């Protein structure tokens, strides 16, 4: 019987697990987002915003899923943006010509400069004085199609300079377009020099560059052009998203600050905003995935925030290898006062991943995320598209669904499986009823032989009890006599019982013949 009940329990557990498994698979996600699709496309792509990263419980976004209206997961691929493979840049000296303000605004070749037949520039007069100098013209020269000027390095002669500069590009000295801007800095303190001399350019191919000094022109010692090879195949690029206003909390040690990004963002830029102006301090940045892992160094930088009249300049963003760690630590050198009082704030930037999925089944489609126990089921983009030439349509991710909306979506997604669940429950009840009937029949069969043996035993026991009762009664009667002298008449009682058992004619018992 015990084995029968154990078997019944296992059957019940298996059937219940089979009935409830689809609901568990679709319901164990912390957050859901509605997907808005265009009709008719087979494939869709959506860029994952910061809210999806914040809800994810895995560092690789392995807990992201896309469900159709029936609650079924659909195939998908997850692709992180790839930066172009960059070869080390090469430096080439730049030829520049200082211009007065009037010459910079003229069309064609500016005053004091002539253009040769090959497009090169030549100076025809002495450079203007510093008071009249606010523009520099650079002749980039002939450039191969496989190279671009990615940056300008301006080496200043001044020991102390702080100012803004904007850059324009042109091929004919008449039509100009913005190419970049920066803040240049050179400050000497305690025998060391803090310098920021790089101007990042947009990479637009152009023959000429024009620099406008917005806060007065510095004494330029030399300029270098940073040449970067252009990739043959265009790389997949995505706009960089930023999470601003992250507050760093002071640690137990001086100069130690801790902050959390709040999600597995693949951070590749980190901007540290100092609380007080006119601050200069070296710092080292560390990160780790959790409390049980050690800190690892990811970057070192000179942090500064300098204020000079209307110009304020801060340290540029730190460039990092994509880092999905949540916990960060900044250690600042406090020998010169550290960061002073106030709050250190951080901005973290990353390039957003793209999710591509197959629109299998009926709408509505939802994106679910937030289950640490779920492993990634993404396939490669090439395997997902299977050579399809069509470009995936763009899907739009709506706001996060509330608890009530998510419950409604889940209930709607479970309706197509209702008949299957009803069938499973019916099978469960049938199995339990069958097992109960079998147990009842086995119990009846076990009780039948036991009842027959019990009846025979009862009859034998009754006969034995009757004989024993007669003997006991006779013994009791004999035992009732008292022997002379007050001793119990046990022997006399025994003899009387024996005489009573003898047949007639066998002799009488003394003292009893007169009564016969």
Automatic annotation (TrEMBL):
Ranges of Low complexity composition bias in the record: 467-482, 493-503
Domain of life: Bacteria
Swiss-Prot/TrEMBL keywords: Signal
InterPro entries in UniProt: DUF3999 (IPR025060)
Pfam family for this entry, one: DUF3999
Keyword Cell membrane recorded: no
Signal sequence interval, chain numbering: 1-25
Biased composition (Gly residues): 483-492, 504-516
PROSITE patterns: PROKAR_LIPOPROTEIN (PS51257)
Keyword Signal: yes
Region of interest called Disordered, as start-end residue ranges on this chain: 467-516
Official protein name in the record: DUF3999 domain-containing protein
């Amino acid at each position: 019987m015990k084995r029968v009940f154990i078997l019944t329990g296992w059957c019940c557990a298996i059937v219940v697990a089979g009935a409830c498994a689809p609901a568990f698979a679709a319901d164990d996600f912390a957050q859901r987002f509605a997907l808005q699709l265009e009709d008719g496309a087979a494939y869709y792509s959506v860029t994952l915003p910061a809210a999806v990263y914040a809800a994810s419980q895995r560092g690789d976004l392995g807990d992201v899923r896309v469900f159709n209206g029936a609650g079924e997961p659909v195939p998908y691929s997850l692709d992180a943006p790839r930066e172009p493979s960059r070869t080390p840049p090469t430096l080439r000296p730049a030829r520049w010509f200082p211009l007065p303000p009037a010459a910079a605004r003229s069309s064609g070749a500016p005053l004091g400069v002539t253009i040769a037949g090959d497009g090169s520039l030549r100076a025809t007069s002495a450079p203007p004085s510093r008071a009249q100098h606010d523009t520099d013209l650079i002749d980039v020269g002939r450039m191969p199609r496989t190279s671009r000027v990615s940056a300008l390095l301006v080496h200043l002669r001044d020991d102390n300079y702080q100012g803004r500069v904007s850059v324009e590009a042109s091929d004919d000295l008449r039509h100009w377009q913005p190419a970049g801007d920066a803040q240049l800095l050179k400050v000497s303190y305690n025998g060391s020099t803090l310098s920021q001399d790089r101007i990042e350019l947009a990479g637009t191919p152009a023959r000429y560059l024009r620099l406008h000094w917005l806060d007065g022109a510095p004494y330029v010692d030399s300029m270098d052009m940073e040449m970067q090879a252009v990739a043959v195949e265009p790389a997949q690029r995505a706009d960089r998203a930023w999470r601003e206003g992250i507050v760093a909390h002071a640690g137990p040690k001086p100069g130690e600050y801790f902050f959390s990004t709040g999600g597995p963002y693949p951070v590749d830029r980190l901007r540290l905003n100092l609380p007080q102006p006119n601050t200069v301090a070296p710092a080292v940045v560390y990160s780790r995935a959790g409390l049980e892992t050690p800190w690892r160094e990811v970057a070192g930088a000179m942090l500064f925030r300098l204020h000079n009249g209307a110009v304020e300049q801060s340290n540029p963003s730190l460039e990092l290898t994509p880092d999905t760690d949540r916990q960060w630590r900044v250690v600042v050198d406090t020998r010169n006062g550290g960061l002073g009082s106030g709050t250190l704030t951080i901005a973290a930037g990353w390039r957003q991943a793209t999710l591509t999925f197959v629109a299998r089944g009926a709408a509505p489609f939802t994106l679910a995320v937030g289950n640490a126990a779920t492993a990634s089921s993404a396939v490669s983009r090439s395997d997902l598209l299977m050579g399809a030439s069509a470009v995936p349509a763009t899907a739009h991710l709506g706001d996060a669904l509330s608890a009530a909306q998510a419950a409604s979506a889940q209930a709607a997604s479970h309706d197509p499986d209702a008949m299957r669940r009803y069938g499973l429950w019916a099978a469960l009840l049938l199995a339990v009823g069958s097992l109960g009937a079998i147990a009842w029949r086995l119990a009846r069969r076990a009780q039948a032989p036991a009842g027959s043996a019990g009846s025979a035993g009862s009859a034998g026991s009754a006969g034995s009890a009757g004989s024993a009762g007669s003997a006991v009664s006779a013994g009791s009667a004999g035992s009732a006599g008292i022997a002379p002298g007050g001793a119990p008449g046990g022997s006399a009682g025994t003899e009387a019982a024996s005489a009573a058992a003898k047949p007639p004619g066998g002799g009488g018992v003394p003292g009893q013949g007169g009564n016969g």
